[in-house]
Amino acid sequence: YWGQDLGSVFFNFAEYLKQYTFFINDYNKNLELLRYLDNHCPEVSKMFTQAASECNRLDFPSLLIQPIQR
């Protein structure tokens, strides 16, 4: 992609970037649901704790935000 102008690069990746739209639009709703499950479902809470220990101590919301931060 070297030598292309910025608009051409975005145009080439437009279809790829569209998949983030649904993820970003539903992010807050999904985060609320995950927090609710973490507080009300011991099995989910245990899974989140175990996952954090395997993911450099990042909790699930921290992992969930990473695609948005790219």
Please render the helix and strand layout as text.
Elements: H1 6-25, H2 27-40, H3 42-54, H4 60-69
Helix pairs in contact: 2-3
User: What is the oligomeric state here?
Assistant: single chain
Q: State the major sheet.
A: none
Total beta-strand segments: 0
Shape: elongated
| Distance N to C terminus | 18 Å
Count of helix runs? 4
Radius of gyration: 17 Å
Q: Which structural class best describes the helix and strand composition?
A: mainly alpha
**Could you name the ranges where pLDDT drops below 50 across 5 or more consecutive residues?**
none
Chain-averaged pLDDT: 84
What fraction of residues sit in β-strands? under 5%
Approximate helicity band: over 70%
> What is the string of SSEs from the N terminus onward?
HHHH
Characterise the protein shown here:
With 70 residues, the chain is mostly helical. Helices cover 81% and strands 0% of the residues. It contains 4 helices and no strands. It has helices at residues 6-25, 27-40, 42-54, 60-69. Helix 2 packs across helix 3. The longest helix is centred in the first third of the chain and has 20 residues, at 6-25. The radius of gyration is 17 Å and the shape is elongated.
Salient structural properties:
70 residues, 4 helices
In short:
The chain has helices spanning 6-25, 27-40, 42-54, 60-69. The chain has 70 residues and is an all-alpha fold.
